[in-house]
Every structure is written in C-alpha cells, then in structure tokens.
Amino acid sequence: ARIAVLHLVQAAAVRILKAAGQMTQAVLVDALAEALSGRFRVDAALARRALDYLIDKEYIARSGGLYTYVA
C-alpha cells in the first residue's frame, strides 16, 4: 500500500510540474498536498522521497531551490 501511495505522489508531481514547467519545493509540496487531499495526507518526507526518485530517473531536475520538468 505504501508503494502505491508513493507512485500516486510521483504521478501527481510529474503532472503538476509538466503543467507549470518549474516550481520551488514549497509550492510543489503544497500543490501535491492539495491535489491528493481527497485520498491521503502528503507530508514533506513523502514528497521528498517521491521527488528524489523522479530526479534519479531524470523525469525532473532540481537546481538550487527549483524543480523543473525534464522528460
């Protein structure tokens, strides 16, 4: 169940960043929490794990405090 939650957060992050282009971490975490509020609570640690995975897979990039959609 925890892995499914992580996948939902990752998918939401990609959708949000694809639409916005780039965002700060604080704004992105807020957007994730709002987008997924009907299903579960997104805390900073969960968001961070999802974002780190997406960076490793090169779907998104982090430069300074900005996250950017890549793929």
**Distance N to C terminus:** 27 Å
Mean pLDDT rating: 94
- Major pleated sheet: 3 strands, antiparallel
> What's the arrangement of strands in the largest beta sheet?
1-3-2
Are there runs of 5+ residues with pLDDT below 50, and where?
A: none
Tally of helical segments: 3
Helix content: 55-70%
Give an overview of the whole structure.
There is one protein chain. Strand 2 and strand 3 form a beta hairpin. 61% of the residues lie in helices and 15% in strands. It is built from 3 helices and 3 strands; from the N terminus they run H-E-H-H-E-E. The protein starts with a helix and ends with a strand. It has a 3-stranded antiparallel sheet. Helix 1 packs across helix 2 (25-35) and helix 1 (2-20) packs across helix 3 (44-56). With 71 residues, the protein is α+β, with helices and mostly antiparallel strands.
Strand-helix topology:
Blueprint: H1 2-20, E1 22-24, H2 25-35, H3 44-56, E2 60-63, E3 66-69
Antiparallel strand pairs: 1-3, 2-3
Helix pairs in contact: 1-2, 1-3
Core attributes:
3 strands, 3 helices, three-stranded antiparallel beta sheet, globular, about 70 residues
Short description:
By secondary structure, the chain is of the alpha+beta class. The protein has three helices and three strands; from the N terminus they run αβααββ.
